Amino acid sequence: MNFSLPLPRKSALFMSALLGGVVFTSCAAQNNLSTKSLPPLAEQNQAAPAADITGNVAQKVEAAPVPRARPQLIKKAAMKIVVNSVEQSIDAVAQIIAKQQGDLIGLNERQPTKENSRHTASIQLRVPQNLLEPTLEELAKLGTIESRNITAEDVGDRLVDFQARLTNLRKTEANLQKIMDRAGSVRDVLSVAQELSQVRQSIEQIDAQLKNLQNQVAYSTITLNLEAAVSSASPQRAVGSQIQETWNKSTQSLGGFTIGLLKLGIWLIVYTPYLLILAAGVYGVIRWRRTHRPQETRN
């Protein structure tokens, strides 16, 4: 009985030590597994912000507005201004146009010819399109605006069409030139040359239309009508000018009358033989009647 008691104690100690080792080993294995599984989680955590950034960039790209082409406009303006002096206003308009780098392309001035009529002028101007508004503001300072009108026409589609047609025609011209260089017979050369001439003529026409359209877009036209504020009576001329005008008219009348008499004399000279024959016939009839009247009276 004394030897049997220590054995169970040793076995219990051994079993407890064995269980402790197993538990320690399992804990170590779990720690290793947890440490090995951390990098994928970190990669996922790092990949998530990258995906968010990519998504935000894509959203910004999708939300960004598409840039629109600048409209190609032909602008025209018309103004009617009442001024104190039309002549001074014309000089002021010339200065404004020179300042705004424009051109005066037409002037029609009408002086008062009747009583109570007004001095007027119509001016055609051309200025760069970006200076149209400043020019109109400067012109408005000349007097009182009665009317003002601005119109715009979008010719962007026509410009694109002309440019596309011009590009295609130039490519056709280059191809025809290559074919002409390779052509062997005279007939083929003449045929290609005719086609090439027609293509070049079309290129010149479209190029001229394109440049004209671009020029109209680059420069705006202004029609300015000036009118005097007060109607002016016809000016009284000096006495000397009136006397001189009367003398000129009288001398012209005298000259015309003299020329008329000379013409009449020439006509009489030309028709003198016929007049003499007519006079002789009338004289003969009168003599015959005088000689036969006494006999009739006697009978």
TrEMBL record:
<dbReference type="InterPro" id="IPR025645">
    <property type="entry name" value="DUF4349"/>
</dbReference>
<keyword id="KW-0732">Signal</keyword>
<protein>
    <recommendedName>
        <fullName>DUF4349 domain-containing protein</fullName>
    </recommendedName>
</protein>
<keyword id="KW-0812">Transmembrane</keyword>
<feature type="transmembrane region" description="Helical">
    <location>
        <begin position="264"/>
        <end position="286"/>
    </location>
</feature>
<feature type="domain" description="DUF4349">
    <location>
        <begin position="72"/>
        <end position="287"/>
    </location>
</feature>
<feature type="signal peptide">
    <location>
        <begin position="1"/>
        <end position="28"/>
    </location>
</feature>
<keyword id="KW-0472">Membrane</keyword>
<dbReference type="Pfam" id="PF14257">
    <property type="entry name" value="DUF4349"/>
</dbReference>
<keyword id="KW-1133">Transmembrane helix</keyword>
